[in-house]
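The protein record reproduced below.
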Amino acid sequence: MERFILLLVLGVFSVGSLADEKETSALAWLALVDAGDYESSWEQAAPFFQMSISRDKWAGALTQVRAPLGEVMTRELSHSAPKTNLPGAPKGDYLIMRLSTAFAHEASAVETLTMQQGPQGWRVVGYFIK
């Protein structure tokens, strides 16, 4: 069942083609957040992210903000933009992804996920829900 759900989510990102490494990394990380595994999401994030917030503060913030939204009903990539400079971050290869997401308890939200290319591939450096 989990495999079916993951494949279904991958299809939302790239209808008709395989998801690229950035999207695959983003989806894997979001799956941890969706499952409430906030500590693992911190562990899988980029070192820059980990230096910006402690594991405990991250888990506490998501418990307050993300958990009340409930299950993801739909999630669709609405915008993606590569960047090389971000305020307060070292120069590098980044990708800002905006996702239109419907949660069980919030019909219309925007998730912003910032990914960074590093030695271990594309990893999350920022996550916001509005």
